[in-house]
């Protein structure tokens, strides 16, 4: 049985392919076209050259109407995804599966149990619709942030960037990649709040049985949804591309920021990188550390040089952007600029150690220390602008700091 998939994103395509392949035992001679037919050209190619038995089309695609017309005019047998991508699976198995016990088999596919919120009051309906409009206005984005070497700033950048998105009322998730050293569980002082709200590390659930059991118990602080490693538990031995794919998909955020520390050479992360919409590499203006990336011992290239080669030469991933952290005018700017292979998109100034420590001890992001908010707002704005539609780029008046400031000035 030949399937052609036309779905909302590359991540959704990979996930549905994976789910279908898992059901190869009940779908006879399963063959899935090896690319997402989400454009007119792609779909026409699928019809002409691949000639699938079944076409799957996702209503969430921008070109849905157009593609549906093509399928209809060509007399193709198609089924539509109306909401969650995975919901099509039981339908396909029901129609094309061979084994009678297929229905029982279907249950485990529901790795995620997400109940629609019950809307009772009129006011709630309005709230829900506002949220849905916003969600639709922002195509979901996966942003990967990492460091050229440990300590170059990926956590500081990605957490404060997440905070900037949340300040704009955009649903944002910060994901601490399960294979990096845990940091944020303690930074956020999650244990202190355990009595009122139990923290679930869903990467462990995914690792254990490729299912998410506790999807509706997000840990939200400062309007950011935190998916961090539970530091009380031993580190997971591995975390595969498929597991990361399921994690990112289950989160269902408008913006998902994944902090990979310096794990650029992990093949499972590399496979995931081709789905990333934006890739950021953090470096410090330390010429000795950076030199390791430039100096090439052909017999035994340094880790840093292999990372840069990977990012610069891989045609299957988005072009990465460099973020220079701890930037200060006291460095020899001319020398540093000459040395860098790529002009950084962001030069994030050095934040005094006392401030970094204050934020750590108070379990606050540096962004929430008033004098420093403006620095992030100015320096990381290019990333926000590249991600959000125009009308969401500016922080709305009335949110957090701005409104407090306005109130203060009114009183004085
Ligand atoms: N722009 C900056 N100014 C001052 N200090 C910074 C800046 N960026 C990061 N730091 C500090 O440098 C240290 C390392 O930063 P961070 O933890 O973000 O790096 P990392 O790449 O995530 O490290 P790891 O590989 O250990 O996860 C932290 O103490 C952090 O507060
Ligand atoms: Mg880190």
What is the second-level CATH architecture of the largest domain? 3-Layer(aba) Sandwich
Profile the largest sheet. 8 strands, mixed
SSE class: alpha/beta
CATH class designation of the largest domain: Alpha Beta
Low-confidence sequence ranges: 118-136, 401-412
Mean pLDDT, all residues: 87
Strand content: 5-15%
In brief:
The chain is an alpha/beta fold and 412 residues long. It is built from 19 helices and twelve strands.
What does this 3D model show about the protein?
- Helices cover 43% and strands 14% of the residues.
- It is built from 19 helices and twelve strands.
- The chain has helices at 10-22, 40-50, 64-73, 88-96, 102-106, 122-137, 154-167, 184-187, 202-209, 241-251, 267-273, 287-294, 303-313, 333-339, 353-361, 370-379, 381-387, 390-393, 400-411; strands at 2-6, 31-32, 54-58, 78-81, 141-147, 172-176, 219-221, 224-227, 255-259, 278-283, 321-327, 346-349.
- The strands form two sheets. An eight-stranded mixed sheet has the order 7-8-6-9-5-10-11-12.
- α12 (287-294) packs across α13.
- The model is unreliable at 118-136 and 401-412 (pLDDT under 50).
- The site of magnesium ion has 4 residues, from α7.
- Magnesium ion (MG) is lined by residues 154-155, 183, 261.
